[in-house]
Every structure is written in C-alpha cells, then in structure tokens.
Amino acid sequence: MAKYINADPTEVVLGPSTTQLFRNLSLALYDYLGPGDEIVISKIDHEANIASWVQLAEWRGCKIVWWEGEESPSPTAPTSSSSTSSTKKTNPHLTPTSLAPLLTPKTKLVTATHTSNILGTITDIRALSAYIHANSSALLCVDAVAYAPHRAIDVQLLGADIYCFSWYKLYGPHMASMYVSRSAQEKALKTIGHFFKPTHTLENKLGLAAANYELTASIPAVSEYLARTPWEAIAAHEEVLQGVLIEYLNSKPEVYTIYGERVADREKRVPVVSFTVKGRESKGVVDAIEERSDFACRWGSFYSNRLCEEVLGLDAVDGVVRVSLLHYNTGEFPGCLSFCGVSLAFVLRTFILTFIPCNRGGNQRVRQGARRGRVFVIIA
Ligand SMILES: Cc1ncc(COP(=O)(O)O)c(C=O)c1O
C-alpha cells in the first residue's frame, strides 16, 4: 500500500474510512494547535475533511478561515457565473492565488480536496503544497477520495503533508488509507495509541488496532493490480466519455447548469459530472431518468453540503444531479461511447420535453454497481 502511493511504510495507516482517519488525526493534532492559531478550511470539500477541523478549532480556541476558492472562467460559462463573490459560484477552484490572502503567520493547517465529489475538478495539489511550504509553516491536509479512482498517486510528487483516500472507491474493500509525511509526524503528531505501544510509525500513532484484518489482507493484491493499471489510457478514455455528456449539457445552457469545469480536458477534471436542470428538482430529474432508462445517476449534496448551499447557492438537500463515469463503463469502447453518450442525452432530452413529476425511490436506491449491467455506475 505504501509502495502504491510512493510513501515509506512508516508514513501510512489503514482505517475503516477516510472520515474516521481524519477524526483520529484531529485527536493526534490536539497539542499542535493552540488558542489563536488559524486553520484554513476548504468549503468545497466533503464534510469528512471539514467536521474534524471545525471541532478541533472549537476545542483549541483556533480561528477558522473558510476558503471557497476562486471562480474559474470557462468558455461556455453562463454570464452570471463569472462572479467572485462568496455565493453562486459554479466553477470554484482551490488555487494558490485564492489561498494567499488567507494565509497568516498563525496558520497551522490548510485543508483541500484533490477532487470535489460534486465538481469533479482536479485541484493542483503540487502547486498548492509548493506555495504553502514556501510561504508558511502550515501543514496541507488533502482528501483524495474522489480523485483516487481516476489517477495514479505519488505522494512525493504531490508534496502534501497529509493525504487520505478510501479503498472502496478504488475497487477495493471498505477501508481507507492515510499518509502523513515523516516530517509532519515529527512536527505535529502525538500518538493516540496506548501508552505502552511504540510510536515510531503512523500506524503506531493513529491505527488504534482498527484496521479489519480480513480486508487488510486484500490490499496488497488490489494495490498490485492498481500499480499495473494503465492510468494514462484510463484518463484518455474517461475524457472522451465525459466529453459526450458535457458537450450535450453545454449545448443547452438555458436548461442545464454544470457545476465544475465545463470542458472535458483530463488535466482539469475527472468524469464526475454534476448539473441542475432549470425549473426542476434534482430528485425529480433522477427519478424520471431512472423511470425511463437503465441509467443510474444520483441527486443531492453527497455530504458536500457546505459547497452546495454556501458556495454554489443550491438547496442543500436537493443539490445536484450527479453522473459518475468510470473506465469500466466501456465494453466495446466505440459502441459504449455512442450508446451511453447519445442515449443519456436522448433520455435527458426526452425528459425535458415530457417531464412528469415522480416521487418514487430517490436516493434510497443506493450504489447498485453497474445497474442491471448498464452503462453508468455510481461510485463516488
Ligand atoms: C470526496 C470524498 N471525501 C470523503 C468521503 C468519505 O469517505 P469515507 O466514506 O471513507 O469516510 C467521500 C465519500 O463519498 C468522498 O466522496
């Protein structure tokens, strides 16, 4: 597992979930923070990389500095989205430029998502970590849960101090991994383990004997498989797939608003495509799509409630319609592309023309894998 992300074995720990590992980490950082210190918390993150830091700030009397990122202009952006105000962004990015005014000598921790599970936008973590380390002594803590299923990971290259993702999003068991660099461990972490246990490794410090043995036994096989995975080819394929959907949504700006990048460029986004439909509830859209087709997509805020409500200006419950694509959505590649792209566009078009409100099911229909063997798979 350490090898897969290019870390030292003393720098990684397994746990039941990313949410749990961040919580463990926040306990281990208790003494690192004190009254008057500042934590810059990304508001475009999943709550897993927010709640622990809000709680820690409360416990330690720290100041929370919220970071909404900056709106990135897009060739096809609706005019109202060029705003840099604190609400109603549609394409926020976590950038060094937007972070710069928030960093002070008191900043001890900065949090960021590598990819939002709503926006699909890839944060340039290398640029962020370089900026933070050149301009402050703060640690950078990254949530990579929505990034990991789409790209290879090299923590040395990325330069973040803390980096966490979940194996169940990466074709593995329901577990998560956290990386904390040796230098960050030495600088900031106290063990939360029993007093008589060693404290040399991250596992010693944060593990709490919580990693399920049976599931852990599967990780070497999964990481070996992933190490052989042709990530470049996957990114290229996903770019084509998301391009079909994004192109369709862009063709009707009066109907659809995309949240995140409106271009399919693999350098900019992964194929987690979220949108709203003018005049329709997201729930109703998803219900109607499922009523009329075998496409499985989801609606809501996906635990990124602050992003949806406070940054995008959406209803925190109804949120967005989210379509998540993956490399294994292909079978016969060209056939699948035309099938899934054109068909989903067709379904959406039909739906818009013949909308009938429908209240069945909704988000209760949880991850169904490749729903009845069809094209769209929800994993994130
Ligand atoms: C971006 C992101 N971060 C964090 C999480 C939480 O991960 P876990 O379920 O392992 O706590 C999720 C779960 O969907 C997610 O999408």
Protein described:
The chain is of the alpha/beta class and 380 residues long. The protein has two domains: 219 residues, Type I PLP-dependent aspartate aminotransferase-like (Major domain) (Aspartate Aminotransferase, domain 2); 143 residues, Aspartate Aminotransferase, domain 1, CATH 3.90.1150.10. It contains 13 helices and 13 strands. Strand 6, helix 4 and strand 7 form a beta-alpha-beta unit. Helix 10 runs parallel beside helix 13. The longest helix has 21 residues. It is globular, with a radius of gyration of 21 Å. The C terminus is likely disordered. The site of pyridoxal-5'-phosphate has 12 residues, from helix 1.
CATH superfamily of the largest domain: Type I PLP-dependent aspartate aminotransferase-like (Major domain)
Number of domains: 2
CATH class of the largest domain: Alpha Beta
Helix-strand topology string: EHEHEEEHEHEHEEHHHHHEEHEHEH
Care to count the β-strands? Answer: 13
Tally the helices: what do you get?
13
Bound molecules: pyridoxal-5'-phosphate
Report helical residue fraction. 25-40%
CATH architectural grouping of the largest domain:
3-Layer(aba) Sandwich
Q: Structural class of the helix and strand makeup?
A: alpha/beta
Biggest pleated-sheet summary: 7 strands, mixed
Q: Quick check: average pLDDT? A: 86
Poorly predicted ranges: 79-86, 331-342, 353-380
**And the CATH topology of the largest domain?**
Aspartate Aminotransferase, domain 2
Distance between the termini: 21 Å
State Rg.
21 Å
Arrangement of strands in the largest sheet: 1-9-8-7-6-2-3
